């Protein structure tokens, strides 16, 4: 390479002519690169030389050098580190603004591979040389689909690092929404314009962008509020999900990302939305039905069987009164759409149609969040889930083999059970499935649920039997006491033991049920706690709400590296942990959820 002065093409051409003179039989055919490599003067450039070529005055040399770096960095953390230490990252970032498409495309491809992986120093290096604003500028400038895939893929990789999330929001949120989310979702800003809403385009660009926003939406209250207030974002995401349900396309990665974003944005919505104090919670949580015509005498209830005694679905149900939604003077839009009762039907459709466990968990988590608040809209959500026949859908998912699905559903049922009418129905129809998921002491059920899931189920059972002797009786009849006593005495988990102890003490407190317990061979000693006593009630006197599940951010999940065209593209998925954020309310009962 020391002999290459200027364009290396002329060097190769000269060598080719020389070989053709030396080997006359090859004059009629192209001399292969392998034959050239055999020449003793040929060698591969080292990494420092490749990085130097990025600053070569000729554009083809720049693009070829960037493409070679993209190839070298594919799945090679050592090379990525060397590129960073040799100051190659600032040069690549500078090429993002190059006017030639071939140059900025290859540079972006190299940055995408460099930004992929667990080494956060590479991501920080891109940030330190203003790589995030440069990527956003390139997204605005280029209409080339491949370039847009590379840009959004790089931003998705960068968004997995906590310190970069707010920077991505500050520099790119509105651009990502306007350039990708809205046009690809098919939603239109102006409802009066002639063009009707279009079908969603499930492109790689949309997947990358929704994955990026999924990550940044887990950054905290400020990030969530910025996304909620981003014009058109919530509307477009909901439209995309409605399109997915309508066309039965509910299992792809983009749908998963969209549901996870909405789940994150619904977290603490009752605390963080401006003007939430204008919607106080109905007195004593007496959440009624949503009205409607009275059903026929033998018509099935929402679980498919005959109505339980005392069940009504119309204005005659005086025990619960009627539920009057706030009157609307104009259509809801933006962040208001997050907590409208109409969104319940969308989440229930996803829970019914999707086979993707992450999507199921996120949809159940969204309902969990929306039912968790101390304000009127949470009461409306709890009643709407019942009206839309959502309780049987959730109960069915307790039989899922997905641990996190069972956990999210159990917590959602717990929040929904704060509604007295829901509590009666859940106690009648869900108790058997809840109990079946419990281990018998140290022996786990066939699904081998994690400890957090077992605790969630126990807390849900506790909510269901609190202030409900009938539900407690159903728990006894469901042969749950043996499992609860075994967990209380033998579980290695302090949290499981404490949760089981709370349930046992609540059951024992119902004196009318003790005869049944004695007949079953149980006595007071079986119900003594092995940890601290009865659960403390919240100082406010209100029922507990599960409000602590935060968004499951995906670090490097789904962002695949790209390589030069000579290497087949492969995808790698790295399992991510839950974000360590200080947004969890540790006091028992209740939960909110987070992807």
From TrEMBL:
This is ARVCF delta catenin family member. Keywords: Cell adhesion, Cell junction, Cytoplasm, Nucleus, Repeat. Residues 279-308 are annotated as: Disordered. The keyword Protease does not apply. It comes from the Eukaryota. It is found in: Cell junction, Adherens junction; Cytoplasm; Nucleus. The keyword Nucleus applies. SUPFAM superfamilies: ARM repeat. InterPro entries: ARM-like (IPR011989), ARM-type_fold (IPR016024), Armadillo (IPR000225), Plakophilin/d_Catenin (IPR028435). ARM repeats lie at residues 87-115, 130-173, 389-426. Belongs to the beta-catenin family. SMART domains: ARM (SM00185). One of its GO terms (cellular component) is adherens junction. PANTHER family: PLAKOPHILLIN-RELATED (PTHR10372), SPLICING REGULATOR ARVCF (PTHR10372:SF5). It comes from Hucho hucho (huchen). The lineage of its organism: Eukaryota, Metazoa, Chordata, Craniata, Vertebrata. One of its GO terms (biological process) is cell-cell adhesion.
């Amino acid at each position: 390479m020391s002999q290459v002065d200027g364009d290396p093409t002329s060097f190769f051409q000269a060598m080719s002519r020389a070989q053709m003179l030396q080997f006359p039989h090859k004059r009629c055919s192209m001399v292969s690169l392998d034959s050239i490599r055999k020449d003793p003067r040929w060698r591969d450039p080292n990494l420092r030389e490749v990085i130097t070529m990025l600053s070569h005055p000729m554009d083809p040399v720049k693009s070829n050098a960037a493409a070679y770096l993209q190839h070298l960095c594919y799945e090679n953390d050592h090379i990525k580190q060397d590129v960073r230490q040799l100051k190659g990252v600032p040069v690549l970032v500078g090429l993002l603004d190059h006017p030639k498409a071939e140059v900025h495309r290859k540079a972006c491809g190299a940055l995408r591979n460099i930004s992929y992986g667990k080494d956060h120093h590479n991501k920080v290096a891109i940030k330190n040389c203003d790589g995030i604003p440069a990527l956003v500028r390139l997204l605005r400038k280029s209409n080339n689909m491949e370039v847009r895939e590379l840009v959004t893929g790089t931003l998705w990789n960068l968004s997995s690092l906590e310190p970069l999330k707010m920077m991505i929001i500050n520099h790119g949120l509105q651009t990502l929404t306007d350039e990708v989310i809205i046009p690809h979702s098919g939603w239109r800003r102006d409802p009066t314009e002639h063009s009707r809403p279009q079908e969603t385009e499930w492109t790689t660009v949309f997947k990358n962008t929704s994955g990026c926003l999924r990550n940044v939406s887990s950054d905290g209250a400020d990030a969530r509020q910025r996304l909620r207030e981003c014009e058109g974002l919530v509307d477009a995401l909901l439209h995309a999900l409605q399109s997915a349900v309508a066309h039965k396309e509910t299992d792809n990665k983009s749908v998963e990302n969209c549901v996870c974003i909405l789940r994150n944005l619904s977290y603490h919505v009752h605390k963080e939305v401006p003007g939430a104090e204008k919607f106080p919670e109905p007195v004593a949580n007496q959440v009624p039905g949503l009205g409607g015509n009275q059903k026929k005498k033998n018509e099935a209830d929402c679980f498919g069987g005959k109505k339980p005694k005392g069940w009504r679905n119309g204005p005659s149900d005086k025990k619960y009164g009627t539920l009057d939604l706030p009157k609307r003077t104009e259509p809801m839009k933006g962040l208001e759409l997050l907590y409208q009762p109409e969104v319940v039907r969308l989440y229930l459709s996803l829970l019914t149609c999707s086979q993707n466990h992450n999507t199921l968990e996120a949809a159940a988590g969204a309902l969990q969040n929306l039912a968790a608040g101390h304000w009127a809209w949470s009461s409306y959500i709890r009643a709407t889930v019942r009206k839309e026949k959502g309780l049987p859908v959730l109960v069915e998912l307790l039989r899922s083999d997905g641990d996190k699905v069972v956990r999210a559903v159990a917590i959602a049922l717990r929040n929904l059970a704060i509604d007295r009418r829901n509590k009666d129905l859940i106690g009648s129809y869900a108790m058997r499935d809840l109990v079946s998921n419990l281990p018998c002491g140290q022996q786990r059920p066939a699904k081998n649920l994690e400890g957090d899931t077992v605790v969630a189920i126990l807390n849900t059972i506790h909510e269901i039997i609190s202030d409900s002797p009938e539900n407690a009786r159903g728990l006894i009849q469901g042969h749950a006491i043996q499992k609860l006593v075994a967990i209380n005495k033998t579980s290695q988990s302090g949290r499981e033991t404490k949760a089981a102890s709370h349930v046992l003490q609540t059951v024992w407190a119902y004196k009318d049920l003790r005869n049944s317990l004695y007949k079953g061979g149980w006595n007071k000693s079986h119900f003594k706690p092995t940890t601290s006593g009865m659960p403390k009630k919240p100082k406010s006197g209100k029922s507990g709400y599960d409000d602590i599940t935060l968004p499951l951010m995906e670090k490097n999940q789904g962002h695949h590296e790209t390589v030069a065209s000579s290497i087949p593209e492969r995808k790698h998925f790295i399992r991510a942990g839950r974000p360590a954020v200080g947004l969890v309310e540790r006091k028992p009962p209740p939960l909110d959820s987070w992807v």
